[in-house]
Design goal:
The complex is a heterodimer of chains A (174) and B (318). With 174 residues, chain A is mainly alpha-helical. Chain A has seven helices and no strands. The longest helix of chain A has 26 residues. Chain B has one domain. Helices cover 69% and strands 0% of the residues of chain B. The longest helix of chain B has 36 residues. The chains are: A mainly alpha (174), B mainly alpha (318).
């Protein structure tokens, strides 16, 4: 149980590090997919199967596909690898890396001091409980999210709409 | 204890070997059936009725030069064909074939299958990208757009079934169909899922990613030898998986009179696979924009209406 958890976490951490440091965009994205899958395994292990399934279906299976899609469309080739090399100089990443190392140290300190209860008693949360919680206690958040998504949809529609500036005159122009 | 482990192992390897063998045999079966429907013999030379054609094809594939283009993105190029086979085989793990046969009894079985089929897209996209070839790239782009859009209502069309059985577990869904198969109350969902299933497995009429008359072979243009073979077998695995899923979700799974459960399951699945092949023999390929328009403007509203109606009726009855 613990072994599986630590192995999956290690995979997730290494894969995420590779996302940051890899020069090739598509390879980095593949590592990101691996990292998402590892997180899904952790979710499943700790009694949240619905979150695990949605992590794979929505993040790994849909959003990442779209990102890979865009990168394929741009298809920049080897020039981007050179560009990444010039961007990833130590003086660019040293500052943020130091600060996040401090954050990590804080986190480790907090966890090891036992302030946060780290007992392994977790309970299983099925799809039904999540549905009930979403549509009773968190219904406002669901509605707000749906409005945000609707706004995104309208924006996408506006951007993608074909402007008719053709020779047919203004009768059907909009 | 010891015997139960053996039974589990037998289950795992039995399902694994049976599905891979069936997918291989289907390469012959499809050509035979297509020949039959198109009034020509099909492959009938190797062995009785041409049944050894599969072995001949495999020998040929293994001994072909496994060519990797110099300009390809080599690690991704090698990874791509494995993804589709691995995900399809893993997805079979949650399909219950009879009361006693079936590898895993996952409480989110249905979502698991959907997750695996959405991961399988990477195979096509990465194959198209890594080949570094314009035809392959176009095929990959088409596959990405097509599968992402058809996945949306593939999932939605199944929610009616989930509502009626009250579970994501495929075994519970089959048990809930003991009296009436879900194809009767969920006919709309069945139609939507069937069409989305064809699109997900990229069969004709939805095989635009590899449309051979315009893209040579689409995403697998640069693939040869067993790497191509894996794409090929992966497609047949997807066909069998979709057929088995439709059987499980809409046609009552293993339920049926007289014959033993596993025979009923196999019969229904084989019937659906034959329909898939018949569709390939009968239907022309649509234009790409027609495909997308059909998906978003017809199938999505249909599945939403189905969802709403099912929910309303269930609430009204309860």
């Amino acid at each position: 149980m613990n072994f599986v958890f630590y192995l999956t976490s290690a995979i997730a951490v290494v894969a995420t590090a590779m996302v940051i440091f890899h020069k090739n965009a598509v390879h980095a994205l593949l590592y990101l997919v691996t990292s998402l899958l590892a997180v899904a395994v952790i979710f499943y292990q700790f009694g949240a199967p619905l979150a695990a399934a949605l992590e794979v279906i929505i993040y790994a299976g849909a959003i990442m596909v779209l990102i890979v899609f865009v990168i394929m469309m741009l298809n920049q080739g080897d020039s981007t690898v050179v560009q990444e090399q010039t961007w990833l100089q130590p003086r660019t990443w040293l500052g943020p890396a130091l600060l996040s190392a401090l954050l990590l140290a804080q986190l480790i300190l907090l966890v090891s001091s036992g302030k946060i209860s780290s007992n392994q008693t977790f309970h299983y949360i099925g799809p039904k409980q999540i549905g009930i919680a979403l549509f009773s206690h968190y219904v406002l958040a669901v509605e707000l999210a749906s409005m945000l998504l609707l706004a995104g949809l309208v924006g996408a529609f506006h951007l993608a709409r074909r402007k008719k500036i053709d020779s047919e005159g203004s009768s059907n122009a909009y | 204890m010891n015997t139960s482990i053996w039974i589990t192992l037998l289950n795992i390897f039995g399902v694994l070997i049976a599905t891979v063998l069936l997918a291989a045999i289907l390469t012959w079966g499809e050509r035979r059936l297509l020949g039959f429907w198109q009034d020509r013999p099909g492959p009938n030379r190797v062995g009785p009725f041409g049944t050894l054609q599969v072995i001949a094809d495999m020998i040929k594939l293994f001994f072909k030069e496994d060519f990797t283009p110099r300009f390809a993105d080599i690690p991704v190029f090698v990874l791509a064909p494995t993804v589709v086979m691995a995900t399809m085989l893993i997805a079979f793990a949650v399909v219950p074939m009879s009361p006693s046969i079936g590898v895993a009894d996952l409480n989110i079985g249905l979502l698991f299958v959907l997750a695996m089929s959405s991961i399988a897209v990477y195979s096509i996209i990465l194959g198209g990208y890594a080949s570094n070839n314009k035809y392959a790239l176009l095929g990959g782009l088409r596959a990405a757009a097509q599968t992402v859009s058809y996945e949306v209502f593939m999932g939605l069309s199944l929610m009616g079934v989930v509502m009626m059985s009250g579970s994501f577990n495929l075994r519970d869904i089959v048990i809930a169909q003991a009296d009436t198969w879900f194809i009767v109350p969920q006919f709309l969902g069945f139609i939507v899922f069937f069409i989305a299933g064809i699109a997900e497995s990229r069969r004709t009429p939805f095989d635009l990613p590899e449309a051979e008359h315009e893209l040579t072979a689409g995403f697998h243009t640069e693939y040869s030898g067993m790497k191509f073979g894996m794409f090929f077998v992966g497609e047949y695995l997807a066909v069998i998986l979709i057929a088995a899923l439709i059987t499980t979700l809409f046609l009552g799974g293993w339920h049926g009179p007289l014959l033993p459960p596993i025979i009923w399951f196999c019969l229904k699945t084989a019937f659906l696979v034959a329909i898939f092949i018949l569709l390939r023999a009968a239907l022309p390929r649509p234009r790409y924009d027609q495909l997308m328009k059909f998906g978003w403007k017809v199938m999505l509203p249909l599945s939403l209406v189905n969802l709403l109606a099912t929910a309303g009726i269930l609430l009204w009855i309860a």
